[in-house]
Structures are given as structure tokens and as C-alpha cells.
């Protein structure tokens, strides 16, 4: 690279120099020096500031010094923090929450605040100095979940913004807040409302979950029981409607320990999937009548498979009843559209994240692929007993 190219480049991307040094250009034109380096066996990226305040020559000098420290067994990032008395995002989060969480009267809200940051932000930028966090860092945290977990991502952005605002007021950083939405991230990410309207299945708000669950349990019919089972297992509609009794292993004592083994040919990802059956799920199954000559757990009037519309119709009727009574019903908090069966999986995923459950375990419950092919090859356990405990707590949350 040359000083002139650093000044003139505008196309988003990474422009490499040497010693692991590269210039990162964001979509909004913001530039940042970054060094890829291995510190004590762990590969990481160090922010070295931004041009023109940090010139190419200075960035090269810093990169060379960092490489020398790392090669002799040192930690250039730790030394930099020690010299500056600087604060990491994790430190700032701890200090901010120590003060602000006392304002929340609801214990659940306190846990949700911390769990959201722990799950999505601290793993990505926790070790970054608050003084060096850029809009690109925030984009990197939000972009993977912005279109799939929009409500969670929006809340996460606001919480990061609050932490960084505190860090600014406390004197640990200067300048604009990189997590600010208007005129900043709004130029890099689509508006949450537009995403919800165009793609996401409307989900049930966590605040409405208990009321909705109580309403559902009062309703009669095979489709209502299928929807109940779908919610307790976080399964897809097709998986529930196609369930046959030969896939179900009921516990001997009738309480807990059951397993629903779904074969690969019925799974969206083409891999067999085991679902732990909690006491609540077993109770639903044991109360079901068996249809003579039909293998299906949840069967249609003539013994065949329930239609997808029959389960959706239960939720539509629940919504209509609420509206007729003068209420708003069960709306997705982002799109304000009535929740649908598939959206219940998003509700469960948000709940798991905010309760602090490991990402991989929650994704396993949803039968999503986790990591690369190599990682999946080494992940031999499906964590079914740990997932059983998680699903039991999910059932308890619905009942509370």
C-alpha cells in the first residue's frame, strides 16, 4: 500500500499491506487499521486506529512492534491496555450494569439484559477497548442475526449503545457512538420493520407467551394439541404433523425421560434428530386418543395427517377471539402482525438467548446446523439430557 492509496480508496473491503496489517473500509466509507496476529497460539485482530490520525507509516511501525512482542511470547494487546489504563467492552459492560440494573424492578429483565450482551456481543468485542470500537465492529456483531433474530438484534444494538454512551461519559472513549442507529448503522442495515414485513415469520412476544399458552390449553381439538406439542418441543409444523407412534419412546414412569426420534427423511436438514420429551410433552401425548389403522400421533378426522392449515387455524382463531374481546391479540412485537406457528421457534430461540443458554444447545433444539462440517464431525453428542433440562424450563416459563 501507499499513503496515496490509503487516502483515495473508498470501495468497501480489506486492503492488505504486510505483517498482517490491512486497511478495512466499511460500507459507509469509515476506515480502520487492523492487524491479524497470533498471540500465544490464538489468532486475533488488533485495531490500530484509523487514518488520517494514524498514517500508513505509523500503522506499519505498530504492526512490526506487535509482531515482535508476540514472537517473544508476549501479549501486545494486554501490554497496550496496561500502558493506557484502558477499558475493554466487557469491563464497561460490568461497570455499567452494576449501576443500571438496580433500576430494573423485574429480575427477569435484569437477566435478559446481561444474557443478550453475553451471548452476542462479549464473545465478539468483549476484549476490544471501548476507545477503539468502530461502527464496523458493531456491524460485525449485529449483521449475522439482523434478519433472522431482528427483535433481539434491535435490543442488542440499543444495549451496546447504552454501554458505549456510559463509557464516553465516564471518559473512556471520545467521539460519536458507533452503535447509534440514525445516520449511522441505519445506512448499513435494513430497517427492522421492513425485514419483519418481508421475511420473518411473525413471532409471539415473550411478554405474551404465558397468556397465549393458557389460552391454548383451554381449546379443544387435535390441532390444538398438535400446536401445544409443537410449542413444547420447538419443532416445525411438518415434523409434528408427520409424527408417528413408532418414533416416540415413552418413559417407563410416565413422567420424564421420553424421546422423540425423527428420522432423517423427515427433517429439513436431512439428518436424524432426537427431541427430549419433558413431563409436559409426555402428558400431551398420553392424553391423545389413537386412531384405528392410523400411525399418526396427531391425526385428521379420517385418520390421515393433519394439514398445515389446521394448526395455523388454531392461532388465527385465538387471535380473532382476542380482537373480538377488544384486545390487540398476540402480535409480533416488531412487525405488529399476528403470530404464526413457525414464529414460535423464534420465540423459543429468543427466550433461550435471554436466559443465557449456550448458542449451540439452543440451535440443536431447533435442529439447525452448527459450525462447519469439520466441527459437526467432531461434535458427536446431541446434548439431549442438557436439552431436556432446557426444555423443561421453557415449559415452566410458558406455564408461569
Automatic annotation (TrEMBL):
The keyword DNA-binding applies. GO terms for biological process: DNA integration; DNA recombination. Residues 199-392 form the Tyr recombinase domain. It comes from the Bacteria. GO terms for molecular function: DNA binding. InterPro entries: CB, DNA_brk_join_enz, Integrase-like_cat_sf, Integrase_catalytic, Integrase_DNA-bd_sf, Integrase_DNA_bind_dom, Integrase_recombinase_N, Phage_int_M. Keywords: DNA integration, DNA recombination, DNA-binding. Residues 87-168 form the Core-binding (CB) domain. The keyword DNA-binding applies. It holds the Pfam family Phage_integrase. Belongs to the 'phage' integrase family. This is DUF4102 domain-containing protein. It comes from Palleronia caenipelagi.
Amino acid at each position: 500500500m501507499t499513503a496515496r492509496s490509503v487516502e483515495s480508496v473508498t470501495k468497501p473491503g480489506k486492503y492488505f499491506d504486510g505483517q498482517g496489517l490491512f486497511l478495512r473500509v466499511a460500507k459507509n466509507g469509515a476506515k480502520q487499521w487492523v492487524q491479524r496476529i497470533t498471540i500465544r497460539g490464538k489468532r486475533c485482530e488488533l485495531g490500530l486506529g484509523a487514518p488520517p490520525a494514524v498514517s500508513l507509516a505509523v500503522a506499519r511501525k505498530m504492526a512490526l512492534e506487535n509482531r515482535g512482542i508476540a514472537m517473544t511470547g508476549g501479549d501486545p494487546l494486554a501490554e497496550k491496555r496496561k500502558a493506557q489504563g484502558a477499558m475493554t467492552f466487557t469491563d464497561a459492560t460490568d461497570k455499567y450494569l452494576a449501576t443500571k440494573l438496580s433500576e430494573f424492578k423485574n429480575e427477569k429483565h435484569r437477566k435478559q439484559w446481561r444474557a443478550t450482551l453475553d451471548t452476542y456481543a462479549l464473545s465478539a468485542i468483549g476484549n476490544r477497548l471501548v476507545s477503539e470500537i468502530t461502527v464496523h465492529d458493531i456491524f460485525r456483531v449485529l449483521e449475522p442475526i439482523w434478519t433472522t433474530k431482528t427483535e433481539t438484534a434491535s435490543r442488542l444494538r440499543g444495549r451496546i449503545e447504552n454501554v458505549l454512551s456510559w463509557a464516553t461519559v465516564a471518559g473512556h472513549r471520545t467521539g460519536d457512538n458507533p452503535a447509534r442507529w440514525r445516520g449511522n448503522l441505519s445506512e448499513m442495515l435494513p430497517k427492522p420493520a421492513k425485514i419483519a414485513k418481508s421475511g420473518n415469520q411473525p413471532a409471539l412476544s415473550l411478554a405474551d407467551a404465558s397468556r397465549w399458552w393458557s389460552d391454548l390449553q383451554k381449546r379443544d381439538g387435535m390441532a390444538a394439541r398438535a400446536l401445544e406439542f409443537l410449542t413444547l418441543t420447538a419443532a416445525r409444523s411438518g415434523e409434528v404433523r408427520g409424527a408417528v407412534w413408532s418414533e416416540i419412546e415413552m418413559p417407563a414412569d410416565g413422567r420424564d425421560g421420553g424421546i422423540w426420534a425423527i428420522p432423517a427423511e423427515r427433517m429439513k436438514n436431512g439428518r436424524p434428530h432426537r427431541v427430549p420429551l419433558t413431563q409436559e410433552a409426555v402428558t400431551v401425548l398420553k392424553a391423545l386418543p389413537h386412531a384405528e389403522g392410523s400411525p399418526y400421533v396427531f391425526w385428521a378426522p379420517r385418520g390421515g395427517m393433519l394439514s398445515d392449515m389446521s394448526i395455523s387455524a388454531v392461532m388465527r382463531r385465538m387471535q380473532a377471539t382476542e380482537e373480538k374481546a377488544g384486545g390487540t391479540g398476540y402480535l409480533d412485537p416488531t412487525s405488529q402482525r399476528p403470530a404464526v406457528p413457525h414464529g414460535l421457534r423464534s420465540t423459543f430461540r429468543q427466550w433461550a438467548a435471554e436466559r443465557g443458554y449456550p448458542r449451540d444447545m439452543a440451535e440443536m433444539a431447533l435442529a439447525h446446523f452448527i459450525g462447519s462440517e469439520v466441527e459437526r464431525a467432531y461434535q458427536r453428542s446431541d446434548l439431549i439430557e442438557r436439552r431436556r433440562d432446557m426444555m423443561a424450563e421453557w415449559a415452566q416459563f410458558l406455564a408461569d
